[in-house]
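Long-time lurker. I teach an intro course on protein structure, and each term I like to show students one example going from raw sequence to a predicted 3D structure in token notation. This year I'd like something fresh instead of my usual example. Would anyone be willing to generate the tokens for the chain below so I can use it in lecture? Attribution to the forum is fine with me.
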Amino acid sequence: MSGWRDEGDIYANGVDIDRLLEQILSDPRLRSSKAFSTTKTYADEPIIRRGSQMDSYLPQKIGQMRELQRTPRGRTWSETRLFYEQARLMEDFEDNCPYHGQFQSYYPTYRTMTDRQLRGYFTWRARVRAGQVEQTAASFAYVYLYELLMGIGVEPGLKAFDAIEAFWKTYRQFDPGMDRYVPEWLVDYVVEHGLPAQLAVPYAHLEHDAAIAVLERAEKDALVAAPPKGRRRQPTDFAAMSSAAGEFAQAVCQLSSYRLDESRLYKERPEDVSRVLLAVYSRLALHYRGSRTQGLTETLFGLRFAVRHVMYASAVRYEPGFHEDCVYELSPTRRYVCKNGLWSCDSYHDGGARSAKLGQIVRAVDRQLRQALGYAHPLKDHAEAKYLVKIIDDEIAAYLGWKQAAAPRRVEIDLSKLAGIRSAAAVTREALLVDEEREDSAVEGAPVAAPCAQNAFGATGDGSDALGLSEDEAALLQALLDGRKYAGPGNVDLMVDAINEALFDLLGDTAIEFGADGEPQLVEDYVEDIRAAL
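-- Reply from a regular --
Happy to contribute to a lecture. Here you go:
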């Protein structure tokens, strides 16, 4: 085979093997000759194959890679350094020998593969780079990811990040276990290469740290506003905490083991629950400052501090040189520091878990508030600390008192009583007049013509005239008062509109409505007022 190139596709003198095979197999005389004919039965497979398709064939490039690990220099390298150097050597290599077996290794590298597996890997990798991602031996996919992390076959930086993310999102349908590792590697890649922080946001669980920061800020605000020792604490200012209470409750929904967002009371009365929660947390912050060595937020989630950070944990990766010293602010609550090639992460280190201690506080608030409101769905007691229950009850009482005092005054005017009030006022006025005033009033109010009845408004003349009604409109109104059907002249619809307009000053509402049968009828509540007015 020394006359063949590594790819096994071309003779040393330049003859095209594909063309030669096609010529041999298309010649009917050759196909019918004894060299190519037999009475035996075989499975379907090519009669003639390239040398590169033979299982025993080993491309020269793979041979060079194998030789690299046997050199004196290669023997001194670490496994990750050897993998990196071999990856650089094989960066552009492609093969055409698929592998359908299995290959599993905890830390897969080229060294851990057989020659047959290596050929299968580079065949599969060529298809992936061409956009054809297929399921393969389990560890092949991780070797490919390790190459991308080291910039093998892709430009380091944003292009490599996109390639890692795209491959993971496609291949995770075959291997969901990748979700344990790749999201963290993507965050590390953003940090190491100084890429925009928003690329890491979906994978960094920053919403958890941001929620802790909300609780931390609420605690600091409570401590700053606290009076000096020996002075009384001012009542909670519930009016000033509207927006802060909503943000606080959302943070609690992220952090509490008691699922506040699933609480019936919170769903129905979120503002009440939110304000009481924030008030209780503020009071507890003062309590912890006076009785504990740690603050409230620290007790619930631990301190924020820097710890050693291993970049790309569980991945096989080599970095040729030390990373320059830097500080990368991923969020207000998490930053990465590289010094002398060593990384550290300054953040909360609670693992992103929900707090059971916070859950106890939130549930107790929910239960006590339900009890105070007489809510139809109470919660059972869990024997919380007495000081906690007392703080909660005090803040609930203060909140309900504030809410009652702040409620707007509602004034209702019953217009149906106005006529009676006017009549009573007239009687009272008459009783308070002295004889002289009564005589003077009688003289001044004496009519020139014959006297007539005084209407309900103190005006003389017919009641319909005082209301501004025509003769026909008054007749219609009287018919409705008597429960009769109006049979007089005029357009009933227009007359009803005129009557309603005339009576609006008296009633402040519509006097006549049309029933289901289309006939006009008086609104029952105003019948007596209209009768008195007439």
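Some talking points for your students: The radius of gyration is 45 Å. The chain has 22 helices and six strands.
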